[in-house]
Design brief:
The protein is α/β, with parallel strands linked by helices. Strands 7-8-9-6-5-4-3-2-1-10-11-12 form a twelve-stranded mixed beta sheet. 33% of the residues lie in helices and 19% in strands. Helix 1 crosses helix 10, helix 2 packs parallel to helix 3 and helix 3 runs parallel beside helix 5. It is built from twelve helices and twelve strands. The structure holds S-adenosylmethionine (SAM). S-adenosylmethionine binds next to strand 3, strand 5 and helix 12.
Length: 329
């Protein structure tokens, strides 16, 4: 699927729920979020049908996300069904890791090949604060279990928040030096109504790389050995086991290489994370549309993709925007 700017669209992020067992202040605050009703959310069979049609059009990669995907009942079976889709080459997962200790083996066996775990602090109290009650130890046990069952690479996603975790840059670098993980700092994006003040809390990740370079020698990995790195700039820590990465959607956006669409849990194809245009698949599905009609809707979404995102973060535009937990990240 080539869009108007000659980008090949072959990757779908699928949010299977807007529910989450955490309330991260920049994503899904405790107050003021309305949740989708049971009937609003796509059934697993509907998602499988959408992905099957898209694979025939050239989709090769799916990342399952949420809300928190591991809280949705029947998740392992859903992955096993996705895995049966002929031509789908890569199924990955983004999770907060809270339930990973319990599910790691089953999801590995069902067919998840890569896993990203979100972790914004290595300090128990701070982790609890940013997630509104999350238990850091549960996540660390989940990561250890994921390593044990054989997930590789394990990627740790850390949203860089000024005055909150910038003082932990070296702790995260040490984690990447000691373990075969890829720790990636992601710039905070203005999405939805949250508890953070974007203007105050945003920081470019270039400030973190400068801090880390004072203690570690970093070598940029130029020829991406692995396409799964996506838009991250990846560095090997000299003498260490893992890697460190920086994802800069704000300070150095990578829209020209965007290859993705997003399927929201309520059945909309979202054409860009930071753009409100969406194509409704759920209504068509529930009116028994044909595969050809679904294909046409996919094309509509591909052709609606903007050249680049609009980062308009006025108070009003943020209120209108879906929260990240309803998009999937
Ligand atoms: N619950 C899962 C998790 O925590 O990874 C999946 C959903 S979560 C919405 C996906 C990713 O989006 C997480 O890594 C989270 O940190 C990131 N995210 C959420 N809000 C964000 C924001 N405003 N800016 C940057 N990243 C954000």
């Amino acid at each position: 699927m080539l869009d108007k700017f000659n980008r090949e669209i072959n990757y779908l992020r699928v949010s299977i729920t807007d529910r989450c067992n955490l309330h991260c202040s920049y994503c899904r605050p405790k107050e003021g979020i309305s949740l989708q009703g049971h009937d609003d959310i796509l059934r697993y069979e509907e998602i499988i049908r959408i992905v099957s049609v898209a694979v025939k059009m050239g989709l090769v990669k799916v990342r399952v996300t949420g809300g928190e995907p591991l809280v949705r009942k029947g998740f392992v079976n859903f992955i096993a069904e996705l895995k049966k889709i002929d031509g789908l080459q890569d199924i990955s997962l983004t999770t907060n890791g809270i339930l990973l200790e319990e599910f790691a083996q089953n999801i590995f066996d069902a067919g998840i090949c890569r896993i990203n775990i979100s972790l914004d602090s290595l300090n128990k109290d701070k982790y609890s604060r940013i997630t509104n009650g999350g238990d850091l130890d549960a996540v660390l046990r989940g990561i250890a279990r994921a390593e044990e069952v054989g997930f590789a690479p394990i990627k740790i996603n850390t949203v860089a928040i000024k005055g909150f975790n910038d003082d932990e840059a070296l702790d995260f670098a040490r984690l990447a030096a000691d373990k075969p993980f890829q720790v990636r700092f992601i710039e905070l994006m203005p999405v939805g109504k949250t508890n953070l003040d974007y203007g105050e809390d945003y920081m470019p990740t270039s400030q973190l790389i400068d801090k880390i370079r004072q203690s570690y020698k970093l070598e940029q990995i130029k020829n991406k050995k692995n396409k799964s790195d996506g838009p991250a700039k990846i560095y090997k820590i000299k003498g260490g086991r893992g890697e460190i990465g920086f994802i800069n959607p704000v300070s150095d956006h990578f829209c020209s290489t965007c290859n993705r669409l997003r399927l929201t849990s309520d059945g909309k194809l979202r054409v860009c994370l930071l753009n409100e245009k969406e194509v409704d698949l759920k209504t068509a599905l529930r009116e028994n549309c044909s595969d050809a009609e679904l294909e046409k809707l996919f094309w509509d979404a591909v052709l609606l993709k903007p050249k680049q995102h609009d980062l308009i973060c006025t108070e009003n535009s943020l209120k209108k925007c879906r929260n990240m937990s309803a998009i999937g990240g």
